[in-house]
Design a protein that fits this description.
single chain, 419 residues, alpha+beta, 2 domains, 13 strands, binds iron/sulfur cluster
């Protein structure tokens, strides 16, 4: 029986969740640990997607940018997207590319090899064959913005917080991916989908791995077998999974931690083994050691690693710090596309490849209050101690301590002895 959507259009599960300066899927308010919302998330200000620096100054295609990728989007998020303002537009695009499985959007082996080919040819961002169907070509926006998967939600091509920021987002991404896998399988089982037969079918298909995909995704005979009695009712299944997630929203974190994830290790290994010879260098040999009986990591254990990475992110080490000789602060004269985009920021930090060099490594636009904080380190520099934390200039910025931590991680501020 098809259920009628009961979701209020203003339901937060249908809208992006703002944490700090960045937006995440609304479902994260329920699927991720509650403590996540209390964390000071790192702002990622340089990955300005709708004025993409990789497309403006490098060679990414301006329409798709980094969306030359097929993310694995779980069924319940696709189902929720159908219940939101976009309706069936997103799922129709996914089905047209032969990318829809009961677990959600999932590339066929041939589509994965195309992606490896792009990596091999260093054409990620310029691909003509791996284009996410969620991207609306008419305006460059993601149709699944409020329903993106964990990889898309935590991908920032430029990390404002250096390696510690990279580590933090990497852990959050792993956590989100594990939760998504768990909940997508739980949703299938809960709506009565035969998950055991589904994985047995994958195991059987391992023997014919080279035949399962075409240029348009999974072959239809494969889809017939994987969808079983749900074939022809794909949208209904996605929608049911979305509704189920919504109805059980208060328990999703606990469910994700108690559900046993299944996989067909034989199919996964067959897919890696069949990678064309010229692309084998793109595959991690350890992926071939997948164990059918190995237990997947529990989200609550991955969360502990997230917290460790978080603590490193905001750590203020002791010592005397000054502006790096590689860094300079100049007024924003608004002379190019990027500086015009940031015209509300009166300065830019320019960091060169080395001291005395004129080759720019990167730049970042800053506001007046951030400029004032950096001025504290010009000349004799400062100790990172309680007097700094209480300084009115830091207080005026609001997130002054976090801004100093960010500048340390980016090596704009350096310990005096290292200068
Ligand atoms: S994350 Fe992607 S779209 Fe956003 S700025 Fe980076 S390359 Fe561009
Ligand atoms: S889901 Fe959205 S953000 Fe992710 S690759 Fe597709 S278009 Fe880009």
């Amino acid at each position: 029986m098809v259920r009628i959507s009961v979701l209020d259009p203003n339901d937060p599960i249908l809208h992006p969740l703002r944490l700090g300066a960045n937006q995440f899927p609304g479902a994260w308010a329920y699927t991720m640990p509650r403590e996540l919302r209390g964390l000071k998330m790192p702002d990622e200000r340089r990955a300005t997607c709708m004025n993409c620096p990789k497309a403006c100054y490098e060679d990414y295609r301006p329409d798709y940018r980094c969306c030359t990728y097929h993310p694995r989007i779980p069924n319940y998020l696709i189902g929720l997207s159908m219940l939101g303002a976009g309706g069936d537009t997103a799922i129709d695009a996914v089905m047209a590319r032969g990318l829809l499985l009961p677990e959600g959007m999932h590339h066929a082996p041939g589509q994965w090899y195309d992606y490896l080919d792009d990596l091999e040819n260093e054409s990620f961002g310029q691909s003509t064959k791996v284009l996410c169907p969620m991207l609306d070509e008419s305006n460059g926006y993601c149709r699944a913005h409020a329903f993106r998967n964990s990889v898309c939600s935590t991908f920032f091509c430029i990390k404002d917080h250096g390696t510690p920021g990279d580590d933090f987002w990497g852990q959050i991404q792993t956590l989100g991916t594990q939760v998504e896998m768990s909940l997508s399988q739980w949703a299938l089982r809960a709506v009565g989908f035969d998950l055991d037969t589904y994985f047995k079918t994958f195991t059987r298909l391992a023997a014919e791995i080279k035949d399962v995909s075409s240029v348009t995704g999974w072959k239809s005979y494969v889809l017939d077998q994987l969808w079983g009695s749900w074939k022809g009712r794909e949208k209904e299944l996605m929608r049911e999974c979305g509704l189920l997630a919504s109805e059980n929203r208060d328990d999703l974190w606990e469910i994700a931690n108690s559900f046993e994830i299944k996989e067909s290790a034989k199919f996964n290994i067959a897919m890696i083994t069949a990678v064309p010879d010229h692309l084998k260098g793109q595959v991690d040999p350890e992926d071939l050691e997948e164990d059918e009986d190995a237990e997947a990591a529990k989200p609550k254990d991955i969360w502990k690693s997230c917290i460790k990475a978080y603590e490193k992110l905001w750590d203020l080490p002791q010592g005397h710090y000054i502006m790096s000789g590689r860094a300079d602060i100049v007024p924003n004269h608004g002379i190019d596309k990027e500086s015009l985009y940031h015209e509300d920021k009166p300065y830019s930090i320019r960091v060169y490849t080395r001291k005395g060099s004129k080759t720019l490594d990167w730049r970042m636009f800053i506001n007046q209050a951030e400029f004032e904080v950096l001025q504290l380190f010009v000349g004799d520099g400062r100790n990172l101690d309680w007097t700094l934390l209480m300084h009115p200039t830091l207080k005026a910025l609001g997130r002054g301590k976090e801004f100093v931590a960010e500048m340390l991680k980016q090596k704009v501020l350096v310990r005096e002895s290292l200068h």
